């Protein structure tokens, strides 16, 4: 029997591919991923073992709010307050991609 498409670790976080991002999930960086600022590139970067991901301005703003306290809905609302046009679908797709790559994990809200 195949495992279900979503996985839950012992801490109640989900990181497997196929995980859907819900309104009440609280995304956060896993222990092996770090958000930093690269002075050379003058951009935020994600540091993952053996990988550096250079983020654009909006990607950095989204991940900055992924602290395990904000829900997805709160993240979209905060970004809407900062910027005039925020696509909720684009934010969800971005978070889903990061979860599928195991660069973000979701805590049930």
Entry keywords:
109 residues; disordered N terminus; three-stranded antiparallel β-sheet; Outer Surface Protein A, domain 3; PqqD_sf; PQQ biosynthesis; alpha+beta; globular; 21% strand; PQQD
Write up this protein.
Residues 7-18 have a biased composition (Low complexity). This is Pyrroloquinoline quinone biosynthesis peptide chaperone PqqD. It comes from Streptomyces sp. 900105245. Keywords: PQQ biosynthesis. Helices cover 29% and strands 21% of the residues. The termini are far apart. The protein is an alpha+beta fold. The protein has helices at residues 57-64, 72-82, 88-100; strands spanning 13-14, 26-28, 34-38, 43-48, 51-54, 105-107. The strands form 2 sheets. The protein has a 3-stranded antiparallel β-sheet with strand order 1-6-2, covered by helices on one side. It has a 3-stranded antiparallel β-sheet with strand order 3-4-5, with helices on one face. The chain has a single domain, classed as Outer Surface Protein A, domain 3 (Alpha-Beta Complex).
């Amino acid at each position: 029997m195949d495992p279900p498409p979503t996985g839950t670790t012992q801490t109640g976080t989900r990181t497997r591919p196929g995980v859907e991002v819900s309104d009440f999930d609280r995304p956060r960086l896993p222990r092996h991923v770090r958000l930093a600022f690269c002075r050379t590139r003058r951009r935020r970067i994600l540091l993952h073992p053996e990988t550096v991901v250079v983020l654009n301005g909006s990607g950095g703003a989204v991940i900055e709010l992924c602290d395990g306290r904000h829900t997805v809905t709160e993240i979209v609302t905060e970004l809407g307050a900062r910027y005039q046009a925020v696509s909720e679908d684009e934010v969800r797709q971005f978070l889903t991609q990061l979860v599928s790559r195991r660069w973000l994990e979701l805590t049930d809200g």
